[in-house]
Amino acid sequence: MKKQIKKQQSGRSMIEMVGVLAVMGLITAGAFVLIGSASSSTKRNRVIDDVMEIASGMRSLYAVREEFPAKSDMPAVSTLLNSMNKSSVGPYSGSAYSVERASATTFTISLTKVPNGDCSALKIKEWKGKTATPTCTVDSGDSSVSTFAITFEK
Questions:
Q1: Residue 62: CATH number of its domain
Q2: Domain encompassing residue 137
Q3: Is residue 4 in a domain?
Q4: Those residues with Cβ within 8 angstroms of residue 141's Cβ, 6 or more apart along the chain or in another chain
Q5: For residue 122, what are the contacts with CB-CB under 8 A and spacing of at least 6?
Q6: pTM recorded for the entire structure
């Protein structure tokens, strides 16, 4: 009688390989979600920093003039933004900052084209002091973005 020798198979089956690929796909998808979330958080933080810096500069102008610059004196605001190395360009694609005097003792900083989720997060943020009033207004042309505006008092 001949003895039959059984070979031991080495390697993975097709089902095991499909399982490994599925797990790798889930890990990759999770990484993309985390990267997108981190990017959005970075942009929100930049907006917060920019707004607080612009507000501080506007308050400095108020300290000198005892009122915020009127629309006719917007070169003072442009000079302020330039001195802080801030352009009117915001962190979101196509977004732009604007600063307007609401009254002699209040001013508003606006940022256009903010994604709605980020706008909501900025709106509920606790801004320093009780003198800030944030709002979000959905853009009429594109309902996926809003204009974030925050009004500060002296």
A1: 3.30.1690
A2: 15-153
A3: no
A4: none
A5: 44, 47, 48, 114, 134, 136, 148
A6: 0.69
**pLDDT tens-digit profile, the chain (154 residues):** 566 666 666 667 888 888 989 999 999 888 887 787 777 888 888 888 888 888 888 888 788 878 877 766 667 777 777 766 666 778 888 888 888 888 888 888 888 889 988 888 888 887 766 578 888 999 888 888 889 988 888 7
Q: Can you read off the two tokens belonging to residue 64?
A: 């000198």
Is position 89 within any domain? yes
Can you tell me the distance from the alpha carbon of 21 to that of 28, in angstroms, rounded to the nearest whole number?
10
For tokens 């853009």, name the residue: 139
Residues 114/122, Cβ–Cβ less than 8 Å: yes
> Are 60 and 70 contacting, i.e. CB atoms less than 8 angstroms apart?
no
- Number of domains the chain is built from: 1
